[in-house]
Structures are given as structure tokens and as C-alpha cells.
Amino acid sequence: MNIHLVLVASLLLNIVCFITINGQSKQMKILREENKKLRSNESDDELVALAKEKLKTIGEIKTIKYLRIEKGMSMLEAKQFVDSLKEDT
Question: What dihedral do alpha carbons 77, 80, 82, 85 form, nearest 10°?
Fold first, then answer.
């Protein structure tokens, strides 16, 4: 009987964790879309020029980190953006 109580408690805990993670995932998706809308106001030419300058002065990894922190890009977006700049040069 004791093992059944532990299993039920574990199941309930897993359900609560799943609901929490699912809710946070939806919030992250909404925030990413809002961030893209805000970021689209910035001129693409300005962002490219800034990123190229950062790439020359501080290197690839720090440029990616800068884009993530200051411009709100995801890791994948920043990496793809920097890779596209490297291909252009």
C-alpha cells in the first residue's frame, strides 16, 4: 500500500512539472515573437554593420554572445547571422 502512495505522489508531481514546463514554453514562444517584432524596427543595415564591426574587433564567439544579450537573438539565430556575415566577406 505504501508503494502505491509513492507512485501516485510521483505521478502527480510529474503532471505538475509537465504543466509548468508547457506553460513556460508557450510564454517563451510569445516573448520570442514579440522580440522579433521589436527587433524588426531596427534597420537591417545598421545591425549588419554593427555585427561586422564586432566580428572584426572581438571575434565570432563574443559577437554571438553580444547579439544574444544586446539584441535578444537566440543562440541559433545569432550563430546563423554571424555565419552569414562570414560568408559575405
Answer: -130
